[in-house]
Structure prediction request, 794 residues.
Amino acid sequence: MTHHISEKMFGLTQRNSAVREMFEEGGRLAALYGRENVFDFSLGNPNFPAPEKIKEAICGILESESPTMVHGYMSNAGYPDVREAVAASLNKRFATSFGAGNIIMTVGAAGGLNVILKTLLNPGDEVLALAPYFLEYGNYVNNYDGVLVVVPANTADFQPDAEAVRKAITPKTKALIINSPNNPTGVVYSAETIKSIAAVLESKQREYGHPIFILADEPYRELAYDGVEVPWLTGFYQNTIVGYSWSKSLSLPGERIGYLVIPSEIDDFSLIFDAACIANRVLGFVNAPSLMQRAVAKCLDERTDIDAYDSNRKLLYNGLKEAGFECAYPQGAFYMWVKTPCDDKEFCNLAKKYNILVVPGSSFACPGYVRIAYCVSPKTIEGSIPGFVKLAKELGL
Amino acid sequence: MTHHISEKMFGLTQRNSAVREMFEEGGRLAALYGRENVFDFSLGNPNFPAPEKIKEAICGILESESPTMVHGYMSNAGYPDVREAVAASLNKRFATSFGAGNIIMTVGAAGGLNVILKTLLNPGDEVLALAPYFLEYGNYVNNYDGVLVVVPANTADFQPDAEAVRKAITPKTKALIINSPNNPTGVVYSAETIKSIAAVLESKQREYGHPIFILADEPYRELAYDGVEVPWLTGFYQNTIVGYSWSKSLSLPGERIGYLVIPSEIDDFSLIFDAACIANRVLGFVNAPSLMQRAVAKCLDERTDIDAYDSNRKLLYNGLKEAGFECAYPQGAFYMWVKTPCDDKEFCNLAKKYNILVVPGSSFACPGYVRIAYCVSPKTIEGSIPGFVKLAKELGL
Prediction:
């Protein structure tokens, strides 16, 4: 043995996140050429500021509420009044009837996913992910010795194909992760898509006699354009658990604040809810950050500047099209998913010559594409277009 | 199979934390008798407010720094300037030479412990805990399929016995957790104790030819009375990793903010540091809450009101002694560790009759004692004394 750490973690140190590597590369290039001359589209780190109301809420809370309450421990699930407010806000929007007892405040959506996977998975249990998918799902599932099973992409329009889902299900399938609006494609899964997947899951649940859960990972829910509706999944499928984060919708990614919705009608509801509260504790989260819980509860009707993202979307889309690239016009999130006329990793390397940083599709189990995160300043997009034009020429487009 | 969740988590739902159960019981009794008539000593939730400076720091940051930076992603290890400030503060206090590259900001000490255990443990690896110990260590170790091995308590003075540590070490021992000032006893491990344990570990490292790490869990470091010095462990043993939290020292337990110190001189330093950053990410923490990172960096010289805890300590100690109880005079943390003249769980049940909530020693792998957390208002202590007096009489003291 040449090292003394966990074998799982040793493996991870040998193949670190491509997204994070690009993030570090961005820092290196910025030091060389100046931040304004580097066009870093690698990370989903919103460039638009949190709404002013967040600041007001935080300072207002610190002025008016007791510090021992604001900064103190509470139930592992979170402050009851905050959970009640979240439930009420969901009920108003989606005609549901959740209560505080259906909500667990979490350390972002990543924390929430870990909590629910810890709650559900036995070693060897399978979790389906729909390619292309957020690469961290594999690590989260692996934390609990589950097996991530990838459903191949439907490259026609990146609406997942229910028959492909059916083929991937086995008696060991415990859950399916659905991420819509999707990272990395920007596609919003349609009600039709969801219905067809729900029908497959229902028939497989009957066949095997045990539940298969949908885990809806929804940090991009609020980011949908052109009035497109993002289906609320608990209305389509009984065994749905939703994970949310304010990282993108209120530009608070560093604050690690989100929640899980565990509807009363899911199988084993009480057991799952209780276990998830305990998982939140034993994984070391203990509870979602307390001041930020109280702050977001005061900002449930706030939204980030969706028009700014929309304007970025148009700017980048038009620029890329004019340069000759092929990409779908995304309806949600803040990612452009662009077909590469060469190997996608080679594309990323070529792009670096023009100080453009993007992430290869192979990092999302879907080679032949790149992800361009346009949650950046419009200047970054404008500045990058000449580089994209040169890159297109170099690639013979 | 009668349920559909993780077997590990099912086990945990069947034996929930005694501390947390007491916390819930406190809520129930408060609803029945009024909060002021319930003497809840069950949870380490500081009753003293965070220093005013925390509020000033938070609002000042929100006024003067860019929200995209304050609430944004940064490296998984945390903001470089915050880590540098933490390192500098440690260097000033302990004559060390840490840099930002030795510090990982974490979601509290619980998050930090999970990160380092995830980093180090392979299934079956053993981690030693010194009884009595914080009951969550067992869950943290179990998260990574490690085995917690309990070193029996030295009930003479609750300074751990190095020979007992030696007996517990096997070729599978990966780490030893040291928690001083100690939860639940309030004992500060002496330099002599630490030296004797370090000598045992060093000889065992040589014997087995692999490192055995000390994981120093230090949320109570700042809470020491009578001028007693809390040994800084990296000065005593090379393979020491320190976990810290501002939960107790600045009364911020709900905010989930702390750090790991990974000294450059430990075996496999680079690999362990890199793996710990990745573990922080893949466990779903991603990074310590961002605004709170920036706030604590401005409050590194702030302390909670130690005199208030000290006054509580004297008040409770004198009250308990006069009532006839036997307890050591604790030098640190905010716990009193009291010998029970009957079964410790029975003691806790009897105490409830007087609306007094305490936690049985058996929850810390040390039956025959109870833990009384005196991080409460002095009124709670004063109000509880008549109950303790009656309880002592009932127990024939």
Observations:
- The CA atoms of residues 57 and 63 of chain A lie 10 Å apart.
- The domain at 7-51+304-394 of chain A is CATH 3.90.1150.10 (Aspartate Aminotransferase, domain 1).
